[in-house]
Amino acid sequence: MICPTSRWCPIPFFSVFSRFSPFYSRIIDEYKADLYIKGKVKVHKRNHLIRYVPSMFRFEKHINDYLMESLSELHYTAPDIYDRKIKAVSTTFPRNRGQITDVMDYLNMNIYSSSLMSDKLLSPLDKKSSRYYHYLLDSIAGPPDCQRYKILIIPKFRGTQLVSGYMWVSDQIWTIRELYIEGVYDVIRFKVRVKMGEEGDVEFLPVQFDLNLVFKFIGNHLEMDMGAWLKYNELNFMKEPPGVNLKRSIAMT
């Protein structure tokens, strides 16, 4: 146990986690997956200035609620290349073009990498960026032989590249089971919850995203709630050096 005498205390998080994170960020070499996205947009307030926001959806007069869903094929190649092919789209927007923001910035996420959202955010899981964060143990769950730690992420100061939130981390091999972050980038306040696969090969990959994006710009107020699910069809681990078994190495670490 990290902190046996207190439920709430600072922990030397990276003294343990930094041994694993760089390795996990590179463990997947390539994958193909089906990506299903379903979401809704609520217009709380808008005016004519919304027209001047580049690539924004065009709204119908007196209609404030919109739905959308899509099915795509996602191809990932290490270290950070994502190719998305849209197979089907259904939406109640009057035009298929336009968006509040590029939601793929939130979905193309290797949570163990040194940065998030195409280098827009300093990852709290990166050893160098950890100096900008405090980490606190909030709670411990699960049986003694399979415990999980809930660790709070607290930025040391306000900044558009920093986030707050929490993560659930497994003991022994220190994989992330769930990550929740929130912050502000440009004119969008975002909340992102990432759930990782429970077992087997997908243990190192996200299987579900929950997004909440709030856009505010000169009297305009829009909100998007979106869910995304991934089903992996092909999955390749990075090439193993001769005589090395990656999964065995992880289990023995």
Question: Describe it for me?
Answer:
This protein has 4 helices and 13 strands. It is mostly beta strands and about 250 residues long.
Layout of helices and strands, plus pairs?
Layout (H helix, E strand, L loop, with lengths): L8 E2 L2 H5 L3 H6 L1 E18 L19 E13 L3 E11 L12 H4 L7 E2 L4 E2 L10 E9 L6 E8 L8 E7 L5 E10 L2 E9 L9 E12 L2 E18 L8 H7 L1
Antiparallel strand pairs: 1-7, 2-3, 2-13, 3-4, 5-6, 7-8, 8-9, 9-10, 10-11, 11-12, 12-13
Mean pLDDT across all residues, rounded?
80
Structural class computed from helices and strand pairing: mainly beta
Strand content: over 45%
Report the C-alpha radius of gyration, rounded.
20 Å
Q: pLDDT under 50 segments (min length 5)?
A: 241-253
Shape: globular
Helix percent reads under 10%
Distance from N terminus to C terminus (CA atoms, Å) equals 17 Å
N to C succession of SSEs = EHHEEEHEEEEEEEEEH
Helix tally equals 4
- Major beta sheet summary: 11 strands, antiparallel
Q: Strand order within the widest sheet?
A: 1-7-8-9-10-11-12-13-2-3-4
Query: How many strands appear in the DSSP assignment?
Result: 13
